[in-house]
Input
Amino acid sequence: MIARVWRVRRVRIGLALVGMLALVALAAPVLAPYNPVTQIDVVHARDLPPSFAHPLGTDPYSRDVLSRVIYGARMSLAIAAFSVAIAVTLGTAVGLTAGFAGGAADAVLMRLVDAGLAIPRFFVLLVVLALWNTVGPVALGALIGLTGWFGMSRIVRQETESVRHREYVTAARAVGCGTTRTLLRHVLPNVAGPVIVAAALGMGNVILLETGLSYLGIGVMPPTPSWGNIIWDGHDVMLNAPWISMAAGLAVVLTVLAFSYLGEGLRRALEPSAT
Amino acid sequence: MSVLEVRDLSVTFTTPSGVARAVDEVAFSLDAGETLALVGESGSGKTMTALAVLGLVPPPGRVGSSSQVRYQDRNLLGGSEAAWRAVRGAEIAIVFQEPTTSLNPVLTIGTQITETIHAHERVTKAAARARAAELLQRVGIADPTHRLDSYPHQLSGGMRQRAMIAMALACRPTVLIADEPTTALDVTVQAQILELLAALKAELGMAMLLITHNLGLAAGVADRVAVMYGGRIVESADTDALFHQPVHPYTAGLLRAAPRLEGPARPQTVIPGAVPPATAWPTGCRFHPRCAFAWERCAADEPPTLSPAPGRTARCWLVEEPDRRRA
Output
């Protein structure tokens, strides 16, 4: 199975990029030439163009942009990973329960999910975050995760519903497996493929979402760097110092692309019908 | 003494086109070490009967309130889910028709066999694995320790069915249900699997409920045969008696329809018509629209389970009016 996944070129490219990004995020203190929040020289070192000392220049507050982008990777990836983990856990739990139980439980849970999907997520987050004065990164990740599991639960429910009628599920019960064991050992591994694909694609989405919220000033709070607020820092001086917003913007594009390559590749490898 | 006794078993499904009576008033008993064959066409209720015996009727199916599945004189249908679980796999085990779909594709053979053991007994992982290897050896799989780590798709159809049998035998059940155990296999492998089942049955002293549409198979393996039609057992008898002197016209029709290799060539006979849907059984005897002997009484009243001879049953009015058979 691992060999089959590895044969897909998109998976290799996606994994290489994601791996590189993860490495940058983890090694941020080593890689960043400056402290990301230190204001180097508020009078003389504002909006400096790229140079050997500052490969990506400095921002209006005279901070090193490269260092901020590197630390921003750390923040964006950590928030995305945390919120996707929450969404996968909740979505899988609800989807498995609904799909396996069927009947009334299924109907009630799925109508709740429908309601969740019908509410525009971005505006819910906007309202909650605007009313909440200081949101830490953990709370931000949790909020994004808690509003993002509905789609996942539908995928899991649908897969569970089809796996539940397979003969090996009946066979598992016929050898004396209880409901929990049947679900976790026999059903869950067989629905894992689409979950993994959705999680990879979800990482990209969440990074975009977090960038948007931080750009609007209600996501990751300055001076803590995140790609969204770096773009904001540069947007006033876009014409004079375009490298600030562009550096962070390119980082976002690269990351979303990496996860989307990985997700698409995994889809091809794990869902034969998609090719 | 009977280890398994089924009384008045009914399974109904509520469908948009009405209530389907998939299994209706089925009764049989199985003595220790005995083989009973349940024979019938597709849709006659054989498999649903087997699932009901394990308490695994899929929703929205409902088991009748007066139905009883008695294992060693205890009615399982009144019991809890925990009581069922203790019986499934340990006391009554089942081998399904299609090993390709009844083995979980993402778990190794070893995992699936040891799972059965762990579900019923407190043993160490190593002990369970050793027993699983022993079981694979017993069902004739070469290099069993190595095969434990194989996934189902790495085995041939015959090997998979052998692995299924090993799984079913893991806790030495007293009753083995074999639901069309050879239907999905190559003809060359079918005989091997049957021989294996017969040998294991004798060795372990199990009773076997063999579900099949293949009369030849039933004749070769079973002590007694029960013929199902339209969700009911229409005739049951010792194997020899049933094959030499069928009482129910349906049984006789099935026997005539079976191809033969010996004797003079004769045209293949068929039973006219088709099995009606389970939502719309005909009034009276369910077989009467397809029966050559049917008269008014057959369309009006459903025959009860009658006894044409000691140890035999048949649901047919011909038992009471045998003269009509010659007419």
About this structure: Chain A has a mean pLDDT of 88.
